[in-house]
Amino acid sequence: MKTGFVNIFGRPNAGKSTLLNALMGEKLAIVSPKVQTTRHRIKAIMTEKDYQVIFSDTPGIIEPRYKLHEKMMQAVKGALEDADVALLIVDVNENWEECNTIFEALKLKVPAVVVINKIDRASQEKIKEAVSFFESKTYCRKTLTITATSGINIKNFLKPILELLPEGDPFYTDDDISDLPTKFFVSELIREKIYELSQDEIPYHTAVLVREFKEKTTLVKIVADIIVHRETQKVILIGEGGSMIKKIGTAARQDIEAFLQQKVFLELFVKVKPKWRENDLQLKEYGY
User: Fold this and answer.
1) Which of 146, 142, 148 is nearest to 164 (CA)?
2) 277, CA 20 to 30 Å: which among 21, 139, 173, 230?
């Protein structure tokens, strides 16, 4: 069978997480119009009779400003090292020269498929120009054009990728769809709601730590801490009379229930940990 790692690279907001979710038909990666939403490498395992493809969503490629950013770029580096095929995703309306500079800097040692995304927002002429531009690059073996938000013809999408993958034994059992624990996805769903509901800068200063995950007979009890690094941020996240934290909790609980297919009791606390983004021990505790 065809088997291997197909790792997705690109600038922030190119649509990496949306693509991963569309391919899997399941929300594994959180999505937000704000940049730097993805902080971890998220593997998604697609297994059929003739193939097993392990897709990896990776953080958007940025210049690190904090230790947190450095950890994010380490996730990108790890994905470069074990890739069998690279998916290089581009927003058709981005600056292609800048994207090309980033892709060339990756120094890929494996074949790459350039995925031109958001084609619903461009003319046919512009799409053709983008295809020609990237097909002229030495790293590009094939181009695909998609709009990840409106679904993907998975058979057509996979065909050129499977051609580039080696034959081998599967890495994971049939029923695995990710190698990450449930607690990880729970914390990410909470973090997504912070991105959706709070002010612009707040999400970048927060982390989520699931402290308790207990499966009871009728529901799952989850206790999580939202970490911020200033008291003023804590005040904003709690909101007047607890209004904001209640909003975040309600929205997160609904998504977690849909993900777990179980009733959930969710309790959220906001804790201040100054400069957590620069603290190695705290970064490790929060899963980075």
Assistant:
1) 142
2) 21
